[in-house]
From TrEMBL, chains A, B, C, D:
<feature type="binding site">
    <location>
        <position position="60"/>
    </location>
    <ligand>
        <name>substrate</name>
    </ligand>
</feature>
<comment type="similarity">
    <text>Belongs to the glutaminase family.</text>
</comment>
<keyword id="KW-0007">Acetylation</keyword>
<dbReference type="GO" id="GO:0004359">
    <property type="term" value="F:glutaminase activity"/>
</dbReference>
<keyword id="KW-0378">Hydrolase</keyword>
<comment type="subunit">
    <text>Homotetramer.</text>
</comment>
<feature type="binding site">
    <location>
        <position position="240"/>
    </location>
    <ligand>
        <name>substrate</name>
    </ligand>
</feature>
<feature type="binding site">
    <location>
        <position position="258"/>
    </location>
    <ligand>
        <name>substrate</name>
    </ligand>
</feature>
<feature type="binding site">
    <location>
        <position position="112"/>
    </location>
    <ligand>
        <name>substrate</name>
    </ligand>
</feature>
<dbReference type="Pfam" id="PF04960">
    <property type="entry name" value="Glutaminase"/>
</dbReference>
<feature type="binding site">
    <location>
        <position position="157"/>
    </location>
    <ligand>
        <name>substrate</name>
    </ligand>
</feature>
<protein>
    <recommendedName>
        <fullName>Glutaminase</fullName>
        <ecNumber>3.5.1.2</ecNumber>
    </recommendedName>
</protein>
<dbReference type="InterPro" id="IPR012338">
    <property type="entry name" value="Beta-lactam/transpept-like"/>
</dbReference>
<dbReference type="InterPro" id="IPR015868">
    <property type="entry name" value="Glutaminase"/>
</dbReference>
<feature type="binding site">
    <location>
        <position position="188"/>
    </location>
    <ligand>
        <name>substrate</name>
    </ligand>
</feature>
Amino acid sequence: MNLQEVIDNNLAKTANGKVADYIPALGQVAPKQLGVALYNLDQNELEQAGDANVRFAIESISKVIVFLYAVKQLGLDEVTKHVGARQTGFPFNSILNLEIERAQHPLNPFINAGAIEVTSLIKPLADRQPFEQIIMFAREICHDPQITLNNEIFESEDRTGDTDRSLAYYLKANGIMQGDVTVSLTTYFKQCSMMVTAVSLANLGAVLANNGVKPWDQDRLISSRAATYAKSLMMTTGLYNESGTYSSIIGIPTKSGVGGGLMSAVPNRVGVGIFSPPLDQAGNSVAGLGALGDLSTDLKLDIFRY
Amino acid sequence: MNLQEVIDNNLAKTANGKVADYIPALGQVAPKQLGVALYNLDQNELEQAGDANVRFAIESISKVIVFLYAVKQLGLDEVTKHVGARQTGFPFNSILNLEIERAQHPLNPFINAGAIEVTSLIKPLADRQPFEQIIMFAREICHDPQITLNNEIFESEDRTGDTDRSLAYYLKANGIMQGDVTVSLTTYFKQCSMMVTAVSLANLGAVLANNGVKPWDQDRLISSRAATYAKSLMMTTGLYNESGTYSSIIGIPTKSGVGGGLMSAVPNRVGVGIFSPPLDQAGNSVAGLGALGDLSTDLKLDIFRY
Amino acid sequence: MNLQEVIDNNLAKTANGKVADYIPALGQVAPKQLGVALYNLDQNELEQAGDANVRFAIESISKVIVFLYAVKQLGLDEVTKHVGARQTGFPFNSILNLEIERAQHPLNPFINAGAIEVTSLIKPLADRQPFEQIIMFAREICHDPQITLNNEIFESEDRTGDTDRSLAYYLKANGIMQGDVTVSLTTYFKQCSMMVTAVSLANLGAVLANNGVKPWDQDRLISSRAATYAKSLMMTTGLYNESGTYSSIIGIPTKSGVGGGLMSAVPNRVGVGIFSPPLDQAGNSVAGLGALGDLSTDLKLDIFRY
Amino acid sequence: MNLQEVIDNNLAKTANGKVADYIPALGQVAPKQLGVALYNLDQNELEQAGDANVRFAIESISKVIVFLYAVKQLGLDEVTKHVGARQTGFPFNSILNLEIERAQHPLNPFINAGAIEVTSLIKPLADRQPFEQIIMFAREICHDPQITLNNEIFESEDRTGDTDRSLAYYLKANGIMQGDVTVSLTTYFKQCSMMVTAVSLANLGAVLANNGVKPWDQDRLISSRAATYAKSLMMTTGLYNESGTYSSIIGIPTKSGVGGGLMSAVPNRVGVGIFSPPLDQAGNSVAGLGALGDLSTDLKLDIFRY
């Protein structure tokens, strides 16, 4: 099955999901789109098919990038003082899980509370605000200098982001967040509004798969330990509260975003980027997961089997 | 680092945990014990060191065996109608997670509620009660004909198992459990009271690592799909509510039991069995996890890296 | 408005509720019934209208009787060591509230967990089992020697009472319940299956309203302190998780049961018994609450106003 | 027992509590203070003893005033569309109760989420902002023209009020709050920072006890229905999550505040205001509740008995 066949086999599934519409700019995205990009480490080359060059909002996949950047800046030991690595059965935006656990820190960096906490850790440098640092790092790790901020999406996220504000003030009230709430949220909403493509995400996945070394120029960007840690988190908590479910049937470390993106990394094999906007109930791309499942079977990518 | 060095490097950590003492028969186990067994698929041989032949109660690791047996008897599709594969951040014996989720089935087969549900699915055969079927299967998959029921432990588990009774009646009350509560619980308490060794568990891990084929005689015992599914569950929910944490730092699909056992499976590489009674707060063997971490590093077993 | 007018004004509301049908014996009760009985302490006489002499299952209203009997036998100080007096916003059969609160005892004696705990406190006497003691006390406090156990209902309650079994084992597992679970539950299911009338309940209410002295013979049956305590509980937690709602619009200490009964006590004024089977979503009699609201307005019974 | 004896009997209990210190201005209050004021409707006169004229921050007792004012401005039917009257077993600042209940509105107006919601309903009038309206109403219902805003406390509340911000944004995110979050919170923090005395609170209690008519000038200020409703709420949810407990042993509708105030209303009998800063674990004045218990016994005020 080549990539075009994967597209053909799954495009119709876009009818089974619903494009995120909590902000107008996302709701207007054409639903019947599917793009797949695959970075193969063996041959060191990237294949693509379908809508793999269409730009879309990265949304929650930015949580991986910002986590990696925070670890690069502060070290894994420091970051993990502020956020755990525990799986959670609750929705990504749950406050309840914090209150029940009487947690001293958010359960993991891929739920909103944890991601906001990680963003708040990034310090301004002499000449660059946190978001500037983040977008520069995103361009590098995605091998995509054209990643830009979509201001319309950012402003919508900011305007409607009251659940995130509620989470952030909860963190602040409980002494978990040190940084300024408004500043941290602004950075967080901006990081969610970066525009990427399936190709960008395949590159990101390839760096993770390649244990932190960019395969296109053989330079190390992040530590092997950080890359390993991130792939584990993607497996145990990357697909919202259905992470365990997809782990057991697809078996590929993957992070999703409500913009319709999926980013996967199979250690030492491939990085995958997928784009298809309609989402299932848990917030994951329907046709995208179909495509990923096909790739897993066809290329023997399930890490619990191969 | 050979296995004896792993033992030497971690034995002192037994002082950092606490032997389970909710029943007398467990509380009397000598704490300063550590045994490691490693079944290497490449060389098709089993190494062992330390207390690898000491018998101990399998406890929660039986959840893997019974899940596999239920799948063998009923098929994965049928079993997954009754129990999910979702990660959960709650303790293994939480009722709360059922009530909050208003779940139609337990989140996964490795929390107590899910395990009891799976046990209740196993049907008596003409000549064999469920537990007889289970112990025969356990002997086969562990390559250990000497696995027997410890009656003292079974009776203690049965006598003190009120939390499990509470969970089982909750399942019954909500129409989730079809079988008889008392019969199912008796079977469940018996399965927890089977006596195994680190060697038995290494053999079990080796079957999973070998995708369902027993490496010692090359016969397929369970389907590759069931083996893959089980390894994924071990990764996302095998170490109680710290599963995500250990996934991110050790990276090996593992199931623990409060008897001090750990059973791991690295796909196509090795099966591991470990025994060391003192437990951490989450209920996992302290020195056992130390030993597993050393093996992961030394043999390059982290599946998110290698 | 005389009592017949109250009946006429509310009988049609029976169409707005649903008769409890979790057990067949309850589901077969004719829905279009409404009976009201009012024991007036001023004139020391009891009025009645409609179906005030129809027998029905007391269900949760027995929680008041058994609480009073336990206090009589053991003293209020002893009983309140085992069960609190806290309001709760959760459903009566919630386990979650126990687990969240990590409570050392059930929140109050009118949720199922608390009621089962109170029942478990009652000790067998030389010649009488707990239930025999309870039914004799019920006959006395209700001034109704014809209260008997409905065996069909008891057996149904026992057969379907898995949620209560789950709660009881939770209490046992957490060291809260001292007594035997099965014995306590049998007593509990029997107490719920006593057959009363609106007249019996008006008498019970009158003893509470009269601060523990039976108005029909002027003998003290329970302490004034116990009567006061019970009326407070009826106000803060007597109508399941809508207790506060009805407190604010009716203002009369009241306990309901899913058999369709309501029992109220207005201090020094009246006792009220009502019977009408169809229930609202929270489990309270719809037409019964309509009738009680009319009585409150008409006789100026709201204790927050008069 | 005259009021001075009540003071003498309870002053030493100030040693058993802890002055609120989440903001410096509260933490600096001298702990060994106890003031009691009693407005007797029969004799239409106010007695006082001890520190009854010391000014302190009204804190949560303002929730009663603002609820009454909102009802006066919008009607009870409109207000109760936005906030329930349900008791809750959770702490006053719990978010969890909102998420578990998947509530369409906060459970009641005396938990923080409900109080903030009520505050947000108050509309600016041509010439007066909500807080100006509130403080004018407070002066009138407390018969105390000297009630002023304590700016230091307001600023501290505002600076540290992140839990309230978290709650408010949760309400906003879920479409429950219509008003502006920041504006509503500013008003809310100001209302909590009004400075009252035990005498002011006894007057407020007297208006409630007198069913909405100010006893000092016989003018009706609020409807009888609103007064009744408020007294019920004070009983079922006025003393945080120990409301039921104190209802059962004191039996007087009461609202507390962490400034050390208690405000009680016994229908048609008395209004009570108490001030004593040290609080118990639930946030209620220790010596204040001691004094209120003495008054209840001595003056026969328990509404479930007399």
